Amino acid sequence: MKKARHDHGLEQPTQVQGMTRGLILGIALNLLIVVVEVVIGLLANSLGLLSDAVHNFTDIAALAIVWFAFTQAKKPPTAVKTFGYHRTGILTALFNALVMVLVTVWIFYEAYQRFINPQPVGGALVMITAGAALIANLAVVAILRSRGSGDLNIRSAMLHLLSDAATSAAVVVAGLIIIATGWYPVDPLVSVMLGLAILWGAWKIIEETIEIFLEEAPRAVDVNRVVAEMKDEDGVLDVHDIHVWTIGSQLYALSAHVLVEDIKVSESNKIMNDLREMLSHDFGIVHSTLEVESSPCENGGPYCDINNHTVQVSGSKHHH
N or C: which end of the chain has fewer CB within 10 A? Predict the structure, then answer.
């Protein structure tokens, strides 16, 4: 008996529109935050506020780039870009993460200068301004999370926003400490602690984008289970030469050779349609290319060794 299918909730047009509205709102709020924090940061002489303003400025660029990636992904494929422009989003996610690394290095440098030469900081101004920035960033994160948190590009943008929210929260605490004790080094100390957390989050994004460009199987897909369930479908005798990769955020593809009995093409089409339905509903693999075969494969195992691959044609073997 075949397993019940379940829908993986692929993005619908209304979801994309919701994410677009969330991105535009995030850009507007962050622009306001940047202006306020730069002005107050200069008046209060706070590295925490100025670094938070820099973070928010990178958020504006990050959100704008994510919006650009969404518009590019809507473009149809061409003879040159046969998969369309979905990889644009992966590139922008990588770019955003690298920018965060550079910004954090700048914060470390400025913090070092403040440790060497502590400077007075206006605690009350810092606390009030950072509190407002914290609320604004968390509001945008909540909007984006509810409308597309699984998307790698959205996750990258949310990393920017969450890092700023954390920075703002820490700056609020620093403002309280400055008001209570007058200990000014807490301002750069907070910046360093948050910088380390930001670097970790940025690395996770960089690591995942590298996996995608290396054509590794998606983290969300258990390929051994895919093979087992394909073999479990009615009419399937074996599966080999299987490849699973990520085209764009949450857009997975698969190619495989499927061994069946020597049957009519119309009968094999039904088997292939059943396989595609299973792959789409059970694993979220929406683009699958399946090659039907009626002769067993000489290569052992389901995974193809491209470096030692042969094709049987009219009784002769051709090496690739």
Answer: N
